[in-house]
Design brief:
Elements (H helix, E strand, L loop, with lengths): L1 H25 L7 H28 L2 H16 L18 H34 L6 H25 L2 H29 L18 H29 L7 H16 L6 H20 L6 H25 L7 H26 L5 H27 L1 H4 L2 H32 L3 E7 L2 E8 L8 E6 L2 E7 L17 H7 L10 E5 L15 E6 L2 H10 L2 H7 L3 E6 L2 H10 L6 E6 L14 H10 E10 L8 H11 L3 E6 L10 E6 L3 H4 L2 H6 E2 L26
Parallel strand pairs: 5-6, 5-8, 6-7, 8-9
Antiparallel strand pairs: 1-2, 2-3, 3-4, 9-11, 10-11, 10-12
Helix pairs in contact: 1-2, 1-4, 1-5, 1-6, 2-4, 2-11, 3-4, 3-6, 4-6, 5-8, 7-8, 7-10, 7-11, 7-12, 8-10, 9-10, 9-14, 10-12, 12-14, 18-19, 19-20
Length: about 700
């Protein structure tokens, strides 16, 4: 028992450690956006299905001896893929579709080890049931989820802080070799014992094969749980609060429900959890419909609690339907297939066909419907066995009434969710969803002509706005006012009055900074999301107005760092007089743009007297220690400029770090007057391509 438990625990731990590890390797190559992590999750869910399918075929088609020998051979082959450090030949060129590239990279780098690890849980539980007949193997599944949860929690807290990236890759690879030895010993023991697949004579009665409807329910319940996990993660991390590491909360709750439900069937009681589900659905609806009345913490609490209850219902009903150990691998195959279907729905279908995070609405409806279907299945079985007719008339009437009320409740839920969708889109004049998330253009203050504005939003992050009144249309708004750090850099550059300037901007947004462009100036925007360019061109006039003034304007699509690297390889340094980094206002901090290696690239693109300006305005992270240290390493003096809010002018409070080797500019009176003192006792933080940790810069939000 101990050997099986340790091997299963270690396999689950490695299975969940490799996900953030490989994600951290490739995030810088593909723009550092949350969509990269979503694509990784899609790959891992599909690979998990492959591992479970392999385990099922092995257990159902081969003898114990053949299983052990084949698995030992595959363990050896998987070890040839080590270490799991991806080759830089997979780096994109700039404008390619990142989805197939990421999937191919993952398949080559971690595909074989991950497939073997994912097969371990169901396969070893099947071996355990053969060697220890009569002992339930399902608690081993709960143990594997404990390993998964510990891996998830310890990576950002322990491994990411203590080890550099390549050291993490080697440590994981050594862990896989240890796992391989343990798993190989279990396989050798199975091959030597060669127990029969199923000892029918020892059972009181032959185990009945699961019915097709039960198998379909396994699939749908698992898919609903996976769908709810990803949908809630999107809702919380993109549409409610852009807080770093918030994605850990829903994933931890999801795994916790597996641990609870598979530990003991008694933890899930349908009447109790059905009542709790009804209450939580009403609370979540209230938050969705009147979100302005609730704090961010309250919204996160309700979404998290609802996810937990929905997953308890899905996984609890799944455990109620679990088959005899004889069909264990088929059960786990359907569970993994359901997880993959849920992931495919959110990552692909919802991205292609929804213009908002509407998958959460689908998940809530589906949870209620599946609970009704599970109850209907039990009713049908009881009626078939004659047990229903044996119940008192009052009990039967109460059961029918409960079912009808449940159906009415689900229909009402659907109507209210549809109303909430309409309310969410009420102020939107345009919306779209892509690999990089949901974008909306909001028409705000319609009843106040002087204040009316169009705002570009990515979830809850605002990427600029423009007043619609003709006399205000050219105002520099939001974080980009003339007294902000970026405004001072553009207006007070020593050569501004001597000729045209070359300006580079990382992050397009609504295109607000184009208002500073003059005839013959050159503006080069670097933007990773093509939909942002479409929204900026179609609904805002900043770019078009600048072109009419004679500004040489161009938007270069792709990750800024990768595009700049390609420009240098082509011997095309841009010689920017001002380079502006405006990509750090949400939780999806592209850390690869703030490393020692990244700043070396920026230096090659700056003119000898150029100015680098970095926006560090963010509620949840403080990037000033990182930026200040990088400036010091370049030998550039730097100034922190805190711009005050000026509501009548549409200017937000902002924080910019301005740096330059140009002593004339750094001594300009406006910059000197606008400079703010650096925080006392601030420790310097060095980020490199091999080591960066967002937990170092998280603010303590009051």
């Amino acid at each position: 028992m101990l050997a099986f438990a340790v091997t299963i625990f270690l396999s689950a731990f490695l299975l969940f450690q490799v996900q953030p590890l490989i994600g951290k390797f490739i995030l810088p190559w593909f723009g550092g956006t949350p969509a990269v992590w979503t694509t990784c999750l899609l790959f891992f869910q599909v690979a998990l299905l492959g591992g479970y399918a392999y385990a099922h075929l092995l257990a159902s088609r081969l003898s114990s001896r053949a299983q052990g020998r084949l698995h030992i051979a595959l363990l050896a082959l998987a070890a040839l893929a080590l270490p799991i450090i991806p080759s830089e030949s997979w780096k994109p060129g700039g404008e390619e579709n990142p989805l197939p590239l990421i999937l191919g990279l993952l398949a080559v780098t971690v595909g074989a080890p991950y497939l073997i690890l994912s097969a371990t849980g169901p396969l070893l539980q099947g071996w355990f049931s053969r060697l220890h007949h009569g002992v339930s193997p399902y608690r081993l599944y709960a143990l594997s989820n404990v390993g998964s949860l510990l891996a998830l929690l310890t990576y950002p807290i322990l491994f990411e802080r203590l080890l550099r990236l390549k050291a993490q890759g080697w440590t994981w690879s050594i862990g896989f070799l240890v796992f391989g030895l343990l798993c190989g010993l279990n396989a050798w023991h199975l091959a030597r014992a060669n127990p029969p697949a199923h000892r029918e004579s020892e059972e009181a009665a032959p185990a009945a094969a699961p019915r097709p409807f039960d198998v379909a329910l396994w699939l749908c319940l698992a898919a609903c749980g996976s769908l709810m996990l990803l949908a809630t993660t999107n809702q919380m991390c993109q549409d409610v609060a852009v807080v770093p590491f918030l994605w850990i909360v829903p994933l931890s709750l999801y795994l916790l429900t597996f641990i609870i439900c598979f530990d003991r069937e008694g933890w899930y009681q349908r009447p109790l959890w059905a009542g709790v589900l009804a209450v939580m659905l009403l609370l979540e609806l209230a938050v969705m419909l009147t979100r302005v009345k609730y704090s961010i913490a309250q919204q996160i609490g309700v979404y998290s609690a609802t996810l937990f209850v929905c997953c308890m219902v899905c996984h609890g009903e799944m455990v109620r339907l679990k088959p005899s150990p004889r069909y264990l691998t088929l059960f786990y195959l359907m569970v993994s297939a359901g997880g993959a279907l849920g992931g495919l729905f959110v990552a692909l279908f919802a991205t292609w066909y929804f213009d908002g995070y509407w998958e959460l609405h689908v998940g809530l409806m589906l949870t209620g419907l599946l609970l009704l279907m599970a109850a209907l299945r039990d009713f049908a079985r009881a009626y078939e066995a004659g047990a229903w007719q044996m119940r008192p008339r009052f009990s039967r009437a109460l059961g029918i009434l409960t079912g009808l009320l449940g159906l009415v409740g689900v229909l009402c839920l659907g109507s209210l969710l549809r109303e909430q969708m309409a309310k969410t889109s009420a102020n939107s004049i345009a919306a779209g969803r892509s690999f990089y998330g949901v974008l909306r253009v909001l028409d705000e203050y319609r009843d106040q002509p002087a204040e009316r504005r169009l705002t570009l939003c990515h979830g809850q992050t605002r990427h600029g706005f423009q007043f619609t009144a003709p006399d205000k249309r050219a105002w520099p708004t939001a974080y980009f006012g003339p007294d902000a750090g970026v405004g001072i850099a553009l207006l007070d550059h020593p050569r501004r009055n001597k000729g045209p300037l070359r300006i580079g901007v990382v992050g397009l947004g609504a295109g607000t900074l184009a208002v500073y462009g003059r005839s013959a100036d050159t503006f080069r925007y670097y933007e990773i999301n093509p939909m942002v360019e479409t929204m900026a061109e179609q609904h805002f006039t900043f770019l078009a107005d600048a072109r009419r003034r004679g500004v040489d304007m161009d938007v270069l699509l792709g990750d800024a760092r990768i595009v700049m690297e390609h420009q240098l390889r082509r011997h095309e340094p841009q010689r920017f007089d001002v380079l502006i980094l405006d990509a750090f206002s949400s939780d999806a901090i592209p850390m690869h743009l703030l490393t020692r290696e990244a700043f070396a690239i920026y230096r090659q693109h700056l003119a000898d007297d150029g100015i680098l300006v970095v926006q560090v305005t963010n509620w949840y992270v403080d990037l000033t220690p990182v930026v200040r240290q990088l400036a010091d390493e370049q030998g550039w003096p730097c100034t922190l400029v805190v711009g005050e809010e000026k509501a009548p002018l549409g200017i937000y409070r902002s924080r910019w770090v301005v740096m330059s080797p140009n002593p004339v500019f750094m001594a300009t009176p406006r910059l000197q007057a606008a400079g703010s003192p650096w925080p006392q006792g601030e420790r310097r933080i060095v980020w490199t391509d091999d080591f960066s940790n967002l937990s170092q810069v998280i603010r303590k939000v009051q």
